Amino acid sequence: SSELTQDPAVSVALGQTVRITCQGDSLRSYYASWYQQKPGQAPVLVIYGKNNRPSGIPDRFSGSSSGNTASLTITGAQAEDEADYYCNSRDSSGNRPFGGGTKLTVL
Amino acid sequence: QVQLQQWGAGLLKPSETLSLTCAVYGGSFSGYYWSWIRQPPGKGLEWIGEINHSGSTNYNPSLKSRVTISVDTSKNQFSLKLSSVTAADTAVYYCARNGLERRGYYYYYYMDVWGKGTTVTVSS
Known about the structure:
The structure holds 2 protein chains of 2 kinds. By secondary structure, chain A is an all-beta fold. Chain A has strands at 5-6, 9-12, 18-23, 33-37, 44-47, 61-66, 69-74, 83-88, 102-106.
């Protein structure tokens, strides 16, 4: 199956650490990429590969993977991190499914 | 700096064909795959399909029967056609560049440049 599963919503206190997870069989073979999307805006790539950040992404964003689960960790969450987060991967057929998304609330 | 500019009809009637185009400015076109993604109102992202400069495609199995993605390398553009649209196809449609890096035995796949999105509404 190429489905990716995410928790619909997660909350974190300002300045604390939060982990957003993504589960799927394809993650045993392919790394996930993670996207941040704020209301009315296009998604932005924040993490890809084993733990790679594009230029301009703060180092409080990190990624990890184990078995069929990929994780996005925000260490010291800021108010501006409140957004929807989506994982994406590739499967053996060349498809590129997205997870259902996680709405992150910073309290 | 690579930029994607997309355009197309924003209002369609049921059974019509959706047609969108994405132009690539400021970077290599031939070295990448290029994707279309959509997002219905209030819902998550859905990958539609991808194409490379030589016209090789991959499509989401759930949309494959209605989707055609094509490329015009002379203009550094790629296009999406979705036939027989219904209200369920109402969404913001994005184009994106598929990045690819090889690290040892592994390949890293990602979408690193996105268009601003085009809102498509299907209504009678």
